[in-house]
Amino acid sequence: MSQFNRRKFLEGSASVAAATTLGTGASVFAPAAQAQTIAFKPEKGAKLRVLRWSRFVQGDIDQYMKNVAAFTAKTGIEVRVDNEGWEDVRPKAAVAANTGAGPDIILSTNDDANLYPDKLLDVTDLAEYLGKKYGGWYPAVHAYLKPDGKKWIGLGLGSAGSMMVYRQSQLKAAGFDAFPKTTDDFLKMAQALHAKGTPIGLALGNATGDGLWCNWLIWAFGGKLVDANNKVVIDSPETLKALEYGKQLYATFIPGTLSWLDPNNNKAFLDGQISATNNGISIYYAAKNSTDPKVKEMAADIQHASFPVGPVGQPTESHLFFNQMVMKYTKYPQAAKEFLRFMMEWEQFDPWLTGAGGYVAAPLAAYEKSSIWTSDPKNLPYRDAVKNLRPAGYAGKLGYASAGAGADFIVVNMVAEAISGSKTPKEAMERAQKRAERYYKV
């Protein structure tokens, strides 16, 4: 995909200006001189309603609402914010798009915007302004929200990095001084941990965020849902190798992962039931801020690492992407764009990144300068989640088909069926192939 060409990520963008650090530790970004702040003129009597996903870290919603209050104080525009689980935002957003009524702004996940692009307000002017001012949008943001290469159908908000979260002491007890860098060594580690009675666990239910490890598994062995021409190719020798590997890995899992949704591995890890999982920084955040002394003590033992590299010989990172969509039916399009501009400016966005404790990696290059990434060395692995993100519709062009296939958990279901033994790998691949072809119609 041309939009996912890293060499183009600074195209049309100003260079990132240097950040300076005050004695208090707060970072101040100096935008490029030619990128002066613009403002959209809100409609008279404007009121806004925002639907967003529920927080996984308390500091996220606390700072977000402070920023909302600051916007209202500045503009006089009342903003109502509704919070729903990831799995609930998607259907509510679809209903709003199809009925032409509901929230003015929706914060959703992955490429949901491509399910109804004609129902979304064109925000190209705002996206280009922010890109020029803050060092450029990363390639994956272009791929998700500028699918035709011309018009922006939404704004990137960031990404919750799907990194490996593990107990350092338990890895050492199993004979590993560092987290493995290859899939072969990863399997050996998982087997050793299982033998020690400290198993790993990865979600195999319809988990919007934590189920993304299944993309990594398939890609690591060279498999993919579709090729560059959007032809479905999931039934392949490469996918078969991934699933055969997955069967060996699944044998080391704690029981019950077939029903795990996004909260389950957090609970299992903090309960001491598992030694490693894939997750955002929310597990570490919860441990650091826990009022339970035993859980708080665990924070020092928690470490983060990237997923190991498979036979393809390169990282294949899949992270949960967050978007911001303005619905075309809104009565207050200028107010909506002004709200998003305000929320994305450094003065609001950097405190939000900090408040969220590194849970969200930013979609704009300038925010690599945020002090949140260096204030705690355990935060740093999450910084480049958007920068290194491979879109879920790889290797094809994103659009309705990729969004629909992702929302239908085709890859996750295939992996769950094959590695658990409920279907043979071949049967699971064939079923996934047929399901995907319903979306990717020739």
Automatic annotation (TrEMBL):
GO annotations of cellular component type: periplasmic space
Keywords for the protein's UniProt record, in alphabetical order: Signal, Transport
Pfam families cross-referenced by the UniProt entry: SBP_bac_8
Top-level division of the source organism's lineage: Bacteria
Spans traversing the lipid bilayer: none
PROSITE patterns reported for this sequence: TAT
Compartments where located: Periplasm
PANTHER family: ABC TRANSPORTER PERIPLASMIC-BINDING PROTEIN YCJN-RELATED, ARABINOSE-BINDING PROTEIN-RELATED
Family: Belongs to the bacterial solute-binding protein 1 family.
The name this protein goes by in its record: Extracellular solute-binding protein
UniProt source species: Caenimonas aquaedulcis
Phylogenetic placement of the source organism: Bacteria, Pseudomonadati, Pseudomonadota, Betaproteobacteria, Burkholderiales
